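User: Here's a structure from my thesis project, written as structure tokens. My advisor, Dr. K., wants to see whether a designed sequence matches the one we expressed. Can you design one independently, without my sequence as a hint?
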């Protein structure tokens, strides 16, 4: 079960790396830690269409990776080791349950394998810089939803131009290929990696607080 869970995590994070194509490695590394072993959120991030049963099974695999398949049981006054181990194993005891989990991993593998590898649904990634320290990365196609990752520059923030309309103006001016057409369908992610939020001090070790916000289009 631990190996099955690791396989699931490997495939999901491989898909996530494709979603972050063109983005700074520091952002991807930070978000890998943010997602951690949350298989349900990772599946959503790579546009895997999970059923209600799939979501339950993704949580089962997550629990296996974090606890059940990793650490031994601890018997106590109320429960023997055999009783606790039986309770754990009951989740995947039958052949039908284990087969369903295995097939879920294979379905995720198949979904991730086709991302950016289908000539009938090619991926396009466009990126531009904004002033000295801002950027926009836009990807469309490749079996992932249209995605815009952006970081407003210091100059834009100072000028009060750090708005979604600023990005839309770039799209309408043709600097972001196809974004104007897909604007209403795109998912928008703001990268404020390393910025200090208002009224929030810098940590004693000199590192700045970081947050990540997802905004609907």
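Assistant: Designed independently from the structure alone:
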């Amino acid at each position: 079960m631990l190996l099955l869970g690791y396989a699931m995590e490997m495939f999901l994070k491989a898909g996530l790396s494709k979603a972050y194509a063109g983005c700074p490695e520091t952002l991807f590394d930070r978000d890998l830690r943010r997602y951690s072993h949350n298989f349900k959120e990772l599946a959503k991030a790579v546009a895997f269409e999970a059923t209600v049963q799939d979501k339950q099974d993704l949580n089962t695999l997550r629990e296996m990776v974090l606890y059940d398949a990793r650490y031994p049981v601890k018997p106590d006054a109320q429960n023997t080791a055999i009783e606790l181990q039986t309770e754990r194993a009951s989740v995947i005891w039958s052949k039908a349950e284990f087969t369903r989990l295995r097939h879920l991993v294979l379905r995720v593998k198949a979904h991730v394998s086709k991302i950016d590898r289908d000539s009938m649904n090619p991926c396009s990634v466009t990126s531009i810089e904004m002033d000295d320290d801002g950027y926009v990365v836009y990807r469309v196609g490749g079996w992932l939803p249209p995605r815009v990752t952006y970081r407003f520059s210091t100059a834009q923030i100072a000028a009060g131009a750090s708005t979604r309309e600023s990005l839309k103006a770039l799209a309408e001016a043709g600097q972001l290929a196809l974004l104007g057409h897909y604007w209403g369908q795109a998912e928008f992610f703001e990268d404020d990696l390393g910025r200090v939020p208002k009224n929030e001090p810098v940590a004693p070790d000199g590192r700045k607080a970081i947050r990540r916000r997802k905004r609907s289009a």
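When you compare it with your expressed construct, this may help: The chain is about 45% helix and 15% strand.
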